Amino acid sequence: MLTLDKVYHAQYALKDATRNTDIIFSPVLSEQSGCEVYLKTENLQLTGSFKIRGAYYKISKLSDEEKAKGVIACSAGNHAQGVALASKKFGVKAKICMPDGAPLSKVEATKSYGAEVILVPGVYDDAHSEAERLKEKFGYTFIHPFDDEDVIAGQATVGLEILNELKDVDAIVVPVGGGGLISGVAFAVKSLNPAVKVYGVQSVGAPSMANSVHGHKIQTLSSVSTIADGIAVKEPGTLTFDICSKYVDDIVTVTDDQVSAAILDLIEKQKMIAEGAGAVALAAVTYNKIPNIKGKKVVCLISGGNIDVTILSRVINRGLLMSGRCCTLTVELVDKPGQLVDVSKIIAKCGGNVTGVLHERSNEGSAINGCYLRIQIETRNFEHIQKIKNELKAKGFKLI
Prior knowledge:
It is built from 16 helices and 14 strands. The chain is α/β, with parallel strands linked by helices. A six-stranded mixed sheet has the order 1-2-10-7-8-9, sandwiched between helices. A four-stranded parallel sheet has the order 5-4-3-6, with helices on both faces.
């Protein structure tokens, strides 16, 4: 059984192996959200996420015989790195099955911690099947990413740290994939202070735990699709489902656009990098997904910072669109000299910055001398965009 004694034992075991990450108050995000926002910075943890906690504690509990045989795990990123580093610290051989489509940066990071990486054709489920096969064949110990009491106890130490540093916290908002992190946090927090609310957040493209808890039984998704790859889980764990059903107050969902905007907020306003899964808690608070937290002290758990740099620019662009920081306007014009100059003058007068221009001839059915001007603009917010549109319309330009 998961007990507070086990959680405290995990905290003791981890004291020289992990960081007690900072809890940072954010005045800017607090004003934006209408509550006192604190960030629990697990993105600054060793390996860039909280996963080292559960992996290290699980491996620390293995017998000498189990350690001698080695461990195996499956992961697309963060759990792989956690198991790899924890194994290295104990001198245990580790094999990690990863889908062959996993980002190269995460594959190389896992190798750098000393683990043997086995790339499996397909997706996470295929990597999991291969890990199970190798476990049975060679007698390795399987380190589950979430549905394991020792792993959950390790993750629960995050909750102890929050209560220790912020004793008057009102609510804690936690990312949810398979449920290991929120199970641990909710169990520890509710056992010590039942008055503290614990909320989970999933992506609308992968709401397996949300559907399961709201439907009162474990549900399996046919597919998942989200930029928050760290919480893209088709089916929650049996143990984590039971704990979440008992201790978690509610689980909400956010869109990829909202997650992108939250990542951008953390970059610009906190100078902090978070991956998609790491930013969902802030997205839920920013977009008013959590009830009754206005004016309250709220901790957003930033669970990881291992974002793939190849998609970071796309995420930032999506975040800019979501916050009104850029837009694309299409203007229907008569194809004659001076039109582009007139449009540009209006945008400049309003304080917009043109970053891209595309001129297209009219399509079939349009005026013979017509054309379209597609303009990309940097703006301040949605009110600024509307001001530019109104000025263009006032000068007789037709917006499409």
